[in-house]
Design goal:
By secondary structure, the chain is of the alpha/beta class. The chain is built from eight helices and 16 strands. The protein has a six-stranded mixed β-sheet with strand order 4-3-2-1-15-16. A six-stranded mixed β-sheet has the order 5-6-11-12-14-13, with no helix packed on it.
Length: 275
């Protein structure tokens, strides 16, 4: 089965259309890795914005002959989930937030949207502590949150009180056999070529790295750090038996990867503006 993965499009419809056309031309299912929606802050009606985006996705997903699997990212909001859920109910996509779904006989796909809290950046709906022991410095840090009905300015304590990434992944491991599951995770693993940030820091998830080291899934797909491949010079890396991929991203140009599940490493291609 062929899979086309791209991520961090931030609502640019031209990039989506290019990716969907490429997937259809290559006979691939589409995997979307988070930060899918435009930024709602400052918009006069975020609910209407998300309904309009869902209408766009509904029309485009219906044109595809293969399925769409997706997770959100740290720039997406819970408020935007209700408009997409009817598409999932109609069989046009699968929203893999802490869930697994069959992909092929003896192969699953699972997703996880959350990222570690990044100091100095606003915390949002899908920010989490990396592990249960993490204690934040409760300083002034903007927190932009939503429910299924509204958006609001929250507190860092609300973020701290959520389950950690480590705790969430422990539950996700029970959804399928990790050794036979492809993972769609918005955050990259820590201290790899995939989590380099401008300024020289590594901002990936330690919990995700430990998960990969322990369970050795065949493939993990990541985004979040747009510039990592450019800065590190690498867009994929192996950790034991696991092939980890961050194609890089831009909300102006398509950066995608294509591979066949029968031989991910041997069929891996990087497509779009990055090639």
């Amino acid at each position: 089965m062929k899979l086309l993965f791209f991520t961090d499009i931030h609502g640019n419809r031209d990039v989506y259309l290019e990716g969907f056309a490429l997937a259809e031309a290559r006979g691939a299912a589409v995997l979307l890795g988070g930060d899918l929606m435009p930024d709602p802050f400052g918009h006069p009606d975020p609910v209407a914005l998300y309904r309009e985006e869902a209408g766009f996705f509904a029309a485009e997903f219906a044109k595809l002959s293969k399925p769409v699997y997706l997770v959100y990212g740290n720039h997406d909001y819970t408020l935007s989930l209700p408009p997409l859920e009817p598409l999932e109910a109609a069989g046009r996509c699968r929203i893999l937030h802490g869930k697994a779904a069959p992909l092929e006989p003896d192969l699953w796909i699972a997703g996880y949207p959350s990222v570690p809290v990044t100091p100095g950046f606003p915390s949002k709906d899908f920010d989490r502590r990396d592990d249960p022991a993490w204690v934040p410095v409760l300083r002034r840090q903007r927190v932009l949150l939503s429910t299924r009905e509204k958006m609001y300015e929250g507190t860092l304590r609300e973020v701290v009180e959520r389950p950690s990434i480590e705790e969430d992944l422990a539950r996700l491991a029970l959804e399928s056999d990790p050794a036979r599951t492809i993972y769609l995770m918005h955050s990259p693993p820590a201290d790899t070529a995939l989590d380099h940030m401008y300024g020289g820091g590594h901002v990936g998830s330690r919990a995700i790295r430990r998960f990969i080291e322990r369970f050795q899934p065949p493939v993990t797909l990541h985004g979040h750090i747009h510039e990592a491949p450019q800065l590190s010079g690498r867009w994929h890396q192996s950790l034991g038996r696991t092939l980890m991929i961050n194609p890089g991203s831009s909300d102006q140009w398509l950066h995608a990867v294509l591979f066949d599940t029968e031989d991910p490493g041997g069929t891996l291609e990087r497509l779009g503006a990055a090639t």
